[in-house]
Amino acid sequence: MPIRYDARTYALRAAKGYVSLASVAGRLKVPFALDPHTQGILGQAVGFDSADMIHRKGRFWLHIVVTIPDVEFQPSGDVVGVDMGLSRPAVCSHNRFFGKRRWKEIERRYFRLRRSLQRKGTRSAKRHLRKLAGKVNRFRRDCDHVLSRRIVDSVQPGTVIVVENLVDIRTRTKQRGRESRRRLHSWSFARLRSFLAYKAAAKGCKVVGVDPRHTSQMCSRCGHVHRRNRRSQSRFLCRACGFELNADLNAARNIARKYLASGGMPAAGGPLSTGLACQPAQAG
Ligand SMILES: [Zn+2]
């Protein structure tokens, strides 16, 4: 279990390279190391909140909650669609692929292990299950941080980042292939989106959602929709115009296009809002 500190029990002296922590033996001055990215964030921080001390694999980590001012969103006209892909965890309409293929393999391995532990049902199996749940959760969280960071780093300030509103996708049973395709990463979607939203806001970008229907079956060149346009998990081939593309990239382009078609022109004070409040979808 992490130890929680607050403003009275810890004080960060980033410039001097140590943190002062209250302990049963009085105040401790603990030196720490920072990576350049964290250093940058601390430099912008205008407020410090609670901090959690975590011990993991022989190292101590201090997770600090800081407040950094958002950069005002000034639309540049750039719109980037993000598809939570099959071939890669995230594929963006500006031709960038993020995340590692092996993440999904790790996820499948966890899934199989969990299932076999559940079948056993013994007390020690239950203990293992609890440990495993914590491990899986940390792994997913790390993936979400990496993905959202990479995506935001790849765009310029003023960009609208468009994602699918996937909250209700699981209630739909029709699109079977897509349904199972989603299952592997549906776990992370709300969290990934919230990570994306605050990282985007700190860079002067914003995140909006669109209706996910047909994004994987529509041709991003001619707009033709057909179930068999998507030939396989990785290949899109349009039956009407012959356009061929990586299937996730085609979907990402459709996601960006939907936002533009919905009239969500990236104007200040436009109809679409940032953050987790999803805008219900106007199909384009
Ligand atoms: Zn086409």
Mind sketching the topology for me?
Layout: E1 3-5, E2 10-13, E3 18-23, E4 26-31, H1 36-44, E5 47-56, E6 59-67, E7 79-83, E8 90-92, E9 96-98, H2 102-120, H3 123-153, E10 160-164, H4 176-186, H5 189-202, E11 206-210, E12 235-237, E13 244-246, H6 247-261
Parallel strand pairs: 7-10, 10-11
Antiparallel strand pairs: 1-5, 2-3, 3-4, 5-6, 7-8, 8-9, 12-13
Helix pairs in contact: 2-3, 3-5
Task: Please explain how this structure is put together.
The longest helix has about 30 residues, at about 125-155. The chain is flat, with a radius of gyration of 22 Å. The protein has helices spanning about 35-45, 100-120, 125-155, 175-185, 190-200, 245-260; strands spanning about 5, 10-15, 20-25, 25-30, 45-55, 60-65, 80-85, 90, 95-100, 160-165, 205-210, 235, 245. Helix 2 (about 100-120) packs antiparallel against helix 3 (about 125-155) and helix 3 (about 125-155) runs parallel beside helix 5 (about 190-200). The model is unreliable at about 170-175, about 180-185 and about 265-284 (pLDDT under 50). By secondary structure, it is an alpha+beta fold. Strands 9-8-7-10-11 form a five-stranded mixed beta sheet. A three-stranded antiparallel beta sheet has the order 1-5-6, with no helix packed on it. Strands 2-3-4 form a three-stranded antiparallel beta sheet, with no helix packed on it. The termini are far apart. Helices cover about 35% and strands about 25% of the residues. It has two domains: about 5-65; about 80-260, no CATH class. Strand 12 and strand 13 (about 245) form a beta hairpin. Bound molecules: zinc ion (ZN). Zinc ion binds near residues 219, 224, 238, 240 and 241.
